[in-house]
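pls design
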């Protein structure tokens, strides 16, 4: 087996072991969640979900059209879209 094949196989096996182990760990954590989570943690998660939902509703109130102009700041107004200064 040459060095390139060995390296490719080593990386593939290491990545498979890493991501497989992470998947098994997450599956076990999800399975044990009801047994180890305290009511305070569950309440905080519900509060964070409510905040995220509220923030997304606030974002939806603003118009999405670009008729009012760009929302991003123009840091270099002296350059046009092609990167040239108007004086050149």
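designed seq:
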């Amino acid at each position: 087996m040459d060095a390139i094949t060995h390296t490719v196989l080593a990386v593939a096996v290491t990545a498979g072991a890493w991501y497989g182990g992470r998947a098994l760990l997450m599956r076990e954590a999800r399975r044990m969640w009801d047994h180890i989570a305290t009511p305070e943690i569950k309440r905080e998660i519900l509060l964070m979900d409510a905040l995220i939902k509220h923030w997304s509703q606030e974002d939806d109130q603003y118009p999405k059209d670009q008729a009012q102009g760009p929302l991003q700041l123009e840091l270099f107004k002296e350059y046009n879209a092609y990167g040239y200064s108007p004086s050149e």
